[in-house]
Amino acid sequence: MEQMQSAIQVKNLKKKYKGFTLEVEDLHIPMGFSTALIGENGAGKTTLLNILAGIHLDYKGEITYFDRWSDKEREKTGNPVKEMIGYTGPNNYYLPQWTVK
Q: What are phi and psi of 53, to 5 degrees?
């Protein structure tokens, strides 16, 4: 059987907060499909999405994008990963490099 290409693959992801730890052992999001995260309030859905989008960088584990780029490569200037993923979070995020222009 042919293996599906991954849009995102996560291995042993861990993000600690006071009183809560998000742990994702293995997550495969295939290319060409819609994917929903379902869970109760406080389960870590938004935290996971913020990590995958590169908003939170203080976590442990491995993330691979499009079977090619690591989460560390995602942050390098000129890497196309962030241009290939769209995410609108629930909060206002203003990164230092964003300007009114």
A: -85, -10
Please list, in sequence order, all residues whose beta carbon lies within 8 angstroms of the beta carbon of residue 53, skipping any fewer than 6 positions away.
82, 85, 87, 89
pLDDT tens-digit profile of 6-52?
999 999 999 999 999 999 999 999 998 888 999 999 999 999 999 99
Residue 1 token pair: 């059987």
Q: Which two tokens stand for residue 54?
A: 């590169």
CB 22 within 8 A of CB 15: yes
Alpha-carbon distance of 5 to 11, in angstroms, equals: 16
Q: What is the pTM of this model?
A: 0.80
Which residues, 6+ apart, have CB-to-CB distance to 13 below 8 Å? 22, 23, 24, 27, 48, 51, 59, 60, 61, 62, 63
